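Reader question, answered in our methods column.
A reader sent in the components of a multi-part assembly and asked whether the whole thing could be modeled at once rather than chain by chain. We filled in our standard form and ran it. Here is what they sent:
COMPLEX SIZE: two components
ENTRIES:
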Amino acid sequence: MLLALVFIPIAAAIAIWAGSPARLTAIVAGIINLVLGLIAASSWLTNPEIGSVTYSVLSKPDIALSFSLYDGMSVVMLLLSVIVLAAAVFSGQCPAGREKLWYSNTLLIAAGAIGAFLSDDLFFFYAFHELALIPTFILIGTLGRRNRKAAAWKITIYLAFGSMVLLAGLLWLVSATEVSSLSFDTLLAASIPGEAQKGIAALLLIGFGTLISLFPFHSWAAPAYASAPAPVAMLHAGVLKKFGLYGLIRLFPLVSEGMQHWLIVLIVLLLGNIIWVGFVTLNQKRLDTMLGNSSVMHMGYVFLAIAALIAAGGEGNSLAIPAAVTLMFAHGVSIALLFALADKVEKQTGTLELQELGGLASKAPTLAFFFGLAGMASIGLPGLANFSGEILVFLSGFANYDPAKGFGPVQIATIIALWGVVISAVYMLRAFRQTFQGPEASSVKSAKNLSLLELAPIGLLTLALLAVGLYPNLILQLLK
Amino acid sequence: MPAFYLEIALVVLGLVLLMVEAFGPSKSKTYLGWLSLTGVLAIFAALFTVCPSASCSCDQLTRFYEFDSQAKFYKGFALITTALVILLSLEYRGTIKKFTTGTEEGSGEFYILPLFACAGMMLMASAKDLISIFVAIELVTITFYILVAYMRRNVGSLEAGVKYLILGALSTGILVYGIAWIYGITGTTELALIAERIPSLEGSRAPLLFGLALMVLAIGFKIGAVPMQLWIPDVYQGAPTPITAFLSVGSKAAGFAVALRLFEPFFGASLTSGPLLSLLLVLAALTILVGNLAALAQKNFKRLLGYSSIANAGFLLLAMAAWQPQGSESALSTYEVVSFYLITYLIMTMAAFFFLVTVYNTTGKETIASFNGLAKRNPLLALIGTIILSSLAGLPLTAGFYGKFYVFKSAISAASSGHPALWWAIAFGLVGAAAGFYYYFQTIRAMYWNDPKDPSKIPVSKISLALLVIAALALVVFGFYPQPLLDLAAAK
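And here is the structure of the entire assembly that came back:
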């Protein structure tokens, strides 16, 4: 079953390439994957072995193509991937004649992401992510908007650099554990000497950090998302970027001591994400770059949970991982929804310059409603998934707070990070006002409301946000 | 049947075909290409019937000639490479014709001479005496002098020929000089005896190392390692493309086969292993750096492949610097790492040259810009090219990844077990691999992002198409399931 989850998108991509109707095949594959993913996730609690497969591909060192739902984090990420994929195949405006490229590459990105989250072998975990990057670059470069070539080249260079640093870190990690198998089970049972941990931790933070757009390695993200076709922006910002966070949390036990050395650095950088990039976001004049920057900014909160995890060290922080994973899920769904909606705005009005927009709500009330909802979610309004995530992150920051010792660095960072919520409220509400309210701009004269078909993916994502927001236990029970 | 019959058969076949070409009827000579291809394939089949030299008592060549699993591997490698080069030459015959006599009547040698080079490479795989090593290398090099300059009405080809001749002669001189030093000190040219005598030569360590360094330099010419890499860009760019491929794959692999056999006694003795390791790791780091960084600025795809071949030589040298003798349970030996790397290198580099020739036959150019918009002109070819280039860059889930993976893995385990200087070479290697992504992806970028000047279709001949599809499939399949390659590289 898990094998099917990875290979259905690949098979569909090949089928599209071989000539089957592109859009239909992609939608069918997306929906089958959604159903399979929901079944797998819901039966995981009772049967954690569900669908596990292992094929040995190399004997020295022992590498296996091995899929399983390793723990609750994998389940949540799988859910995120299939939900966003099902929405992404519906979204965006494919230029006529390029359907093959558009849909097959979209499916390949999702296949890479799902493969990475399901692999319980370090090699394939890394490799599937790389597999997803190539179609990302190709789609941004060929079918993107505006200055697509520069943006695509920038993301290529940054992510290739991040991947190489990461690869160095992983190779070092594997050789330091002195095990001959690359499965997570064997690796995580091993231990690494303290001196090596420090270096490995630094490489992992830079490598994964670049892929997650950790400040100051973040400048590829906003231009790339702004130029990317909607499905690519949704899948990369929503799903693929979580690969780095997933990897950091997964490998953290091996380098928990080494990470201590970098705690303060990490805290400074994540505040860079929240505050610095937050102010950058305030200053954006376009809806798409605003969303791109906001996605970079929100990564800071997930890093805050990771910092709380690091600071807790041996004592453990039972809140940090659920907080991080919940926020990863919530952010993934909400940013995908926002990119899908921004794409609709552009389709209706032909522009994303905030200056040229205004009064769209009267022409397209449904679009305005959903955008408002997604924006509220992104700010962290209670009742929507991001609220559960952010509140948990802030709680995890104070989880090990000891009044006798006063505020530690994580607590101070948490207090500063709270201001980020204000910043996001400002830019999100301002963007909503400039786009949907006020006098009708000339660009919205011919705008129409969302059609029923367009509503389907948006409804799906909104449903996910509401479900987790109103009943966070849906996710938290997986993470116990 | 003793193994050296194979080399003899190849040389005889070459001589007979040369006679046919000289005295046969004057018409298109492509049939000679098919004949020599058939001969190479027949000899490849015969390779599996020869007996190992240990069980062959009839052998007068025992002192010079070894036939073990190592030799068998590199002989097979040379034969397959030669077969592919002859096929590529047939695809390239339009250009050969244009720059020689203008007809296809006079260009028969072009398909025949590779046989002699192949015989030389097979000898290199087996040579275990400094004298036979020298003779084998010369047989290869002299054949290449002719082949590189074969397109006599093309200035680039002639220039390449002269450069290759001068630097080749220089490296021959260095090799002989090195052999003389080693012989003078050890009193023998047999590698096995040298290995026995090194431990008792502590008094003459300096001259021994000097001789060794000279030989490393000469081998460096064959494999394209710094500081003997200077000829590569010009010669690769100027030579006929099939010959460039031959140099890049066959000649380099044979060079590594010799290097492995030649260095083993010196790595085995504590007197020489330290300095040899230091020398190789410096060369490896510099070769990786020069190859990869110079490749960044290239505008010509063939020249880019030249620098890429320097870079790959650097990675292989890194594996050799992290010397790991045969017989370990957990880790791969250097032999296996190098063999594994070379198999993947053979597939992707030969495929890259077939890809280049296919595009060149239509566009008439070898620049990266001539790949502009290939995704629109021939989507299948662009997809295959993407797979080949991704594999060359070492992208995971392509076969090319595992070669680099093993190199780095063996280097890291050697570095953490007592050779900390290797960390530097590893760092250089990672920088080089990252640069590799940049320059290989530039071509992918040209294929997909840029618009073609001329939107007409690019036709692919049936042979090229079949080979390219097989190669691309192999790169992807082995990317998911590399075990067969490991079995092949570790064959005992």
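What stands out: The first helix of chain B runs from residue 4 to 23. DSSP finds 20 helices and no strands in chain B.
Send us your own complexes using the same form.
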